[in-house]
Amino acid sequence: MPAGRILLVEDRDSLRRMLERALAQEGYEVEAAALASGGIRLLGEHAYDLVLTDLKLPDLSGLEVLAASRAAHPEVPVVVLTGYGTVGTAVEAMKRGAYDFLEKPVGIDDLSQLIGRAIGGRDSETEVFAPPGAPAIVGRHPRIRAALRLLTRVAATDSTVLLTGESGTGKELFARALHALSARRAGPFVAVNCAAIPESLMENELFGHEKGAFTGADRRQPGRFEFAQGGTLLLDEIGELSLAVQAKVLRVLEERTFERVGAGRTQRADVRLVTATNRDLKAMVDAGEFRADLFFRLDVFPIELPPLRERASDIPLLARHLLSGIARRHGTPPPRLEDGAADLLATEPWPGNVRELANVLERAVILTAGPEIRATDLKPILHPLAAPAGGDERERLRQALVASDGDTKRAAKALGWSYRTLLRKVKEHDLGGVPRYRA
Description:
This protein is α/β, with parallel strands linked by helices. Strand 3, helix 3 (62-72) and strand 4 (78-82) form a beta-alpha-beta unit. The longest helix is centred in the C-terminal third of the chain and has 16 residues, at 315-330. Helix 2 runs parallel beside helix 3, helix 6 packs parallel to helix 7 and helix 17 (393-403) packs across helix 18. It is built from 19 helices and 18 strands. The protein has 3 domains: 4-120, Response regulator (Rossmann fold), CATH 3.40.50.2300; 137-304, 3-Layer(aba) Sandwich (Rossmann fold); 308-385, Helicase, Ruva Protein, domain 3, CATH 1.10.8.60.
């Protein structure tokens, strides 16, 4: 009995024949097509255990083979083959649901192991991803698994990584996992929230200063780039950096050097830079708010983290994982999450994502009497944060401001936003008078 049935789409005759022979020797039944259109036709006629497709094909893109496979058989893993210079397209394929990608020239052992994991591991992928020394990342949804596969691929390199996604989706968790899996794991991991530091202090915070550099500088002070030497530096909310500081970060990326404020001596920067943002940096570039040259330096290897509402199936297991940690901190036994309560959590829109979910669960642990959290316990806690029909951002923000009685820091925490993001959104939506002048 064959180990599995594989559809191979590859236009180069020699490579296609070699892969057919090698996979057949591994015990797989292989059907092959030289064109994307032929592969798409076969997808409509037969069922496969795996699809292996080149990205660059003469008639259509391998992305269209991926789309056709996902539409016909969404549970079937798709592995894409990519040539030199098309890794960015391969990353895009994984965002669209590809299982993984493999760069040419193809190593048969690597391909065999990858196919074995893809076909044999669909039902056995772990729910908790926890590299030694890093917090756990919980989830089985295909989008979170795709993000984790990208993470493990890039961790062994020293490439700059850009983590994108809404506030509260776990960008710092991914950055810590990236560091834990890298060759720099023995070095420091340093995180800077660029939205939490005033613009006037940012250069000093990142690069440090010399004694006498400015009034009150009575001693030399290292910056975060020095603290992170030999390790990893996470610049979270990098979209909040001023253009002047962006230019200095660009220099570090281009020349691997920097200078303390007030210093004449250049320092070497032995740092792996990871950046994160909840903003659309490309749109900021177009608006003149973010340097194009820095954006292209940061966007070497982007990893997009999905919002919680787009992986609702993960919410019950994530909630139970969070409850265990919350109970440990409070020194109490973890409460059981009733199935009805888990179902209720899975239907919420979670504009603040995992951070908001954790806040709600912590309040539930404190307020709930007894060993079980039920749906009736959660409803009063969720109500102030519930999004109106349509999920309108302005109305969510207005409700959070009203529920916090105008306390903007409390409202930011409830929504899972940074304080600076909340202030920007208040201005964008003209809600400066809420709740004092609410209608």
